[in-house]
Amino acid sequence: MRLAVFVLASALSAFALDNGLMKTPPMGWLAWERFRCDIDCENDPKNCISENLFIDMADRLSEDGWRELGYVYVNIDDCWSSMKRDKDGRLQADPKRFPGGIHKLARYMHDRGLKLGIYGDMGTHTCGGYPGTPLDKIELDAQTFADWEVDMFKYDGCYSNATEQEKGYPLMAKALNATGRPIGYSCSWPAYQGGLPPKVNYTQLGEICNLWRNYGDIQDSWDSVLNIADWFFENQDVLVPAAGPGRWNDPDMLIIGDFGLSMDQSRAQMALWAIMAAPLFMSNDLRTISSGARAILQNKMIISINQDALGIQGRRIVKEKSGIEVFLRPLSNNASALVFFSRRHDMPYRYQTTLSKLNYTTGRYKIIDVYTDKATELKDSTSFVVSVNPTGVVMWYVSAPADLSLHYFYRGGKPLGSAYHDDDNAVPRVFL
Ligand code: GLA
């Protein structure tokens, strides 16, 4: 009987992707949000989807300090291919815009310690109307990508139905695995199923995909960032357990360095994406990015929070009527990250709380403000104030608690009792 159950269970249990990749959220650059489907290379040679664009970004990643911080993927999105497959039925890059071909581009990346990602779609066509990879083309196209030495594949879902998706997404995982080349696999499947159970099976996704798009496309606006963040935190009870090393929820690209976000909003996107253990794919123009945006994207402490080895996705833990929200992500070594976020539109808000109100246990904590680098110490019971800008954040790295020092009281040599040394006073600590 037991054997029968076991055999049945293994027959039913889906195939598992086994590429060993993306134990921490993948980082890099992705063309879509910033460059879309610009194929007008005659009039817009700098910005059109062509090998030159990816070469330019690869040069910036490797020469401007990005690669060393972990930004290694250079990902092509839609509109890269020719409208026709070649004579053997294989996908091929548009010959005018990618005269060297994809394999050469992959080599260019590899020579610089970078990786190349590519895009396809489970339907008859990609969302942009280019040839798709429907069920009968899955094995062929997976092999083509492997032959080109591609390192990551995003499988979109336009022009496919639920039945095809149910077959196609696991089949692609199997086909990628069968090539023997480790290829990171990004599935848009849940975004096409509404992102939530019972339609979405996050256990299965974690077994077949390294990351998945749960929700709609990001646009270059604060509204869009807020809408996405709200959806992810409203559904955190479903999404948090789905994430872990090798399997990540993907709230879509970072738009820091583009046109839509203020500096405070840029710091907010970076902070919230780090709390969410989100993949960090920038979609911006690294050739012209401002030093302010670059500093946010290259913030080492935030990146190390995002890349924490435990891979636990963080949560929203407080939602105040005042419009202040607090987010917490547990980190390795008993540390944690805290984000204080303001939805307000008036002026910096002075939010007063204590670590114990945020569920921290008794102890003394070292705090580092990750955007100002200021360090301080706080007891769990000490009242403090953070000043949070409108649509901005304050983000802290909170180290493991140190024991509070006990003070002993004696009278006539006899112990009377003990109490925690209390350096508190009535005035809250202020962080500005
Ligand atoms: C969909 C995806 C986007 C992008 C476009 C390309 O909308 O969600 O991320 O890949 O298709 O056409």
UniProtKB/TrEMBL annotation:
<dbReference type="GO" id="GO:0016139">
    <property type="term" value="P:glycoside catabolic process"/>
</dbReference>
<dbReference type="GO" id="GO:0009311">
    <property type="term" value="P:oligosaccharide metabolic process"/>
</dbReference>
<feature type="domain" description="Alpha galactosidase A C-terminal">
    <location>
        <begin position="311"/>
        <end position="392"/>
    </location>
</feature>
<dbReference type="InterPro" id="IPR017853">
    <property type="entry name" value="GH"/>
</dbReference>
<dbReference type="GO" id="GO:0004557">
    <property type="term" value="F:alpha-galactosidase activity"/>
</dbReference>
<dbReference type="Pfam" id="PF17450">
    <property type="entry name" value="Melibiase_2_C"/>
</dbReference>
<comment type="similarity">
    <text>Belongs to the glycosyl hydrolase 27 family.</text>
</comment>
<keyword id="KW-0378">Hydrolase</keyword>
<dbReference type="GO" id="GO:0005764">
    <property type="term" value="C:lysosome"/>
</dbReference>
<protein>
    <recommendedName>
        <fullName>Alpha-galactosidase</fullName>
        <ecNumber>3.2.1.-</ecNumber>
    </recommendedName>
</protein>
<keyword id="KW-0458">Lysosome</keyword>
<dbReference type="Pfam" id="PF16499">
    <property type="entry name" value="Melibiase_2"/>
</dbReference>
<keyword id="KW-0326">Glycosidase</keyword>
<keyword id="KW-0325">Glycoprotein</keyword>
<comment type="subunit">
    <text>Homodimer.</text>
</comment>
<keyword id="KW-1015">Disulfide bond</keyword>
<keyword id="KW-0443">Lipid metabolism</keyword>
<dbReference type="InterPro" id="IPR013780">
    <property type="entry name" value="Glyco_hydro_b"/>
</dbReference>
<dbReference type="InterPro" id="IPR035373">
    <property type="entry name" value="Melibiase/NAGA_C"/>
</dbReference>
<dbReference type="InterPro" id="IPR013785">
    <property type="entry name" value="Aldolase_TIM"/>
</dbReference>
<dbReference type="GO" id="GO:0019377">
    <property type="term" value="P:glycolipid catabolic process"/>
</dbReference>
<dbReference type="InterPro" id="IPR002241">
    <property type="entry name" value="Glyco_hydro_27"/>
</dbReference>
<dbReference type="GO" id="GO:0016020">
    <property type="term" value="C:membrane"/>
</dbReference>
<keyword id="KW-0732">Signal</keyword>
<feature type="signal peptide">
    <location>
        <begin position="1"/>
        <end position="16"/>
    </location>
</feature>
<dbReference type="InterPro" id="IPR000111">
    <property type="entry name" value="Glyco_hydro_27/36_CS"/>
</dbReference>
